[in-house]
Amino acid sequence: MTRNAMTRNASTSSDQRRLNSISLDRHLLDELALKGVISPDLRQASLDWLHPSRAWAQWAMVLMLAFGTGLILAGIVFFFAFNWASIPDLAKLGMIEAGLIAAALGAWFITLKRLSGQLLLLVASTLVGVFLATFGQIYQSGADPWQLFALWALLITPWTLLSRFSALWLIWWALINIALMLWWDEALGSNSALDAYLSFTFSLLNGSALVLREGIVRLSAKRGGETNQWLGPVWTRWLLVAATLGCLFPLLIEFVSAVASGEGVSGLVGPVGCVLLAGAYLYFRYVDLDIPVLAMALLVACLLFLVGLAVFLDNHEADALITTLLTGIAAIGSFGAAAGYLRKLLQLVSEVEPTEIEAMNGEQHGD
Fold first, then answer.
1. Whose CA is closest to 49, among 24, 78, 19?
2. How far apart are CA 6 and CA 261, in angstroms?
3. Calpha distance 67→73 (Å, rounded)
4. Comparing C-alpha atoms, which of 143, 116, 138 is closest to residue 61?
5. What is the pLDDT of residues 14-61, one digit of tens each?
6. Helix (H) or strand (E) holding 112
7. Could you tell me if 121 and 163 are in contact, meaning their C-beta atoms sit under 8 angstroms apart?
8. Pick from 126, 125, 149: which is nearest to 136 by CA?
9. Contacts of residue 327, Cβ cutoff 8 Å, sequence gap at least 6
10. Phi-psi category of residue 342: left, alpha or beta, with phi > 0 → left and psi -120 to 50 → alpha
């Protein structure tokens, strides 16, 4: 075998491994259709193959399993809450430990490759927090609330790393956010200036997690890893975007109000927040199209526009009736325009005309 043939075989094998590592989903099909790589008929046929008519049964089974797990956890919590006074202290700790060990052993026997095993590990991780809270109440450890959540997150970190389970990762991340927020409130107190920096800090924290998530998923898809299979579900992106925008929203409201009232801008927090919002829109519109993320960004933009308009009219001593009327008209217009824009994007993704596809392909070949 010649060297060129060996090189071609190695290249083909590498390309095949990379192709096999790509996770096919609706988002990828929409992106390929939008770029003109596949036709609308092929996109629809692929969606029918990905989501057959009987897929709802499997989805319902997964939903019922998750719902049952939630009911079990809720039952444990309410059992202790209702019978707290009548249960001996050692019995409280013993029952929680027994449930924790049983859930952990069940996850080990079933293995974390199955959803049931991952859910059992999620139960065990939740019971760790229940045990810490119960221990602190029985023995009056004097620990601050933020220490409880920080220790909880620290103890379940190994399980989180081993689980490769999106839900457990998000719970772990939520515990870190809560611990940092409680620590901030206790160490620095609460005032308007510090609250602004708190919101900005948490928006950067969750935004960094979003950027890291996007980078890991993309890098894993290119290198053929399995990370995108557990971190890749699009709802993980949506939750991180919602958390980032939720923390950023108060800062943007304050910035827009200051600009609309003519008071001037103090500091760079507000302008940086606007840049982050614009960057999120541009990325999820032109780089990695995601309609729900765009909907969240447009919702924030519309609310900021309405707040700015209301503050501007109030600052210029406009009549209350006129202010209400103009704000209402602006709300209808802005939300209607945003909805029309999103609908246009959906149509562009789902109903790409064959002539447009041929034209786009012709341009690509010409380049």
1. 24
2. 71
3. 10
4. 116
5. 555 555 555 666 667 777 777 777 777 777 777 766 666 555 666 677
6. none
7. yes
8. 149
9. 306, 309, 310, 313
10. alpha
